[in-house]
Amino acid sequence: MMTKVILITGGGRGIGAACALQAAEQGYRVCINYLADERAARGVVDAIAARGGVAMAIKADVSDERQVEAMFRTVDDAHGRLDALVNNAGVLSQQMRVEQMSAARIHRIMATNVVGSMLCAREAVKRMSLRHGGPGGAIVNVSSRAGVLGAAGEYVDYAASKAAMDALTVGLSKEVAGEGIRVNGVRPGLIHTDMHASGGEPERVARLAGSVPMGRGGQPSEVAHAILWLLSDAASYTTGSFIDVSGGR
Hints:
Elements: E1 5-8, H1 14-25, E2 29-34, H2 38-50, E3 55-59, H3 65-79, E4 84-87, H4 103-128, E5 137-142, H5 146-149, H6 156-176, E6 181-188, H7 195-198, H8 204-208, H9 220-231, E7 242-245
Parallel strand pairs: 1-2, 1-4, 2-3, 4-5, 5-6, 6-7
Helix pairs in contact: 1-2, 1-9, 3-4, 4-6
């Protein structure tokens, strides 16, 4: 049996890094995409190698079509197959109201979170689909509870991008369900990652923990468990579905 290959975008930190480590533990050969933080991505690769796993890091801006295509060719050259994609790369900007947002800011958010996810999904389908001679596979889009809740007063643009990812999840799942590919989404809630700092509030999880029914923020590993389950054969009859990992929020 061939060892399965997984590509995780934004895999150097936070939820992506947790997914990479768990995937390696489950026997996947892991391809970690990163944009800026090479050191973090290399650190995850080294951690996987130290445990006897196989991993590589690939630099690419997922909002750039040529870089996405080159990234997938790198996976082809290294492993000759792709079985799982985690669309995890995402960005947000400083907290503000919609009336304060520039077009440049909105375009940046949509380019990475929406265009990037769709481009990566496109390339994954070309390789996985039985229609194209592939082995089948699974895609998980890492959305956000913000896509449902709206993130008012903080980052409605980010929330809108995640709602778009949810629509991608539903629509693509129906397109490829008969071609051996399952497509699902995970919506993290308040998770302890570095992303909140890019929104201008590193301690955001602590501030909002009281609004979570479970009374705490979540850990990246808790989100990764849901993602890896959706990728696994245990979820073989699950597609077009979502798991909220949000402590009830």
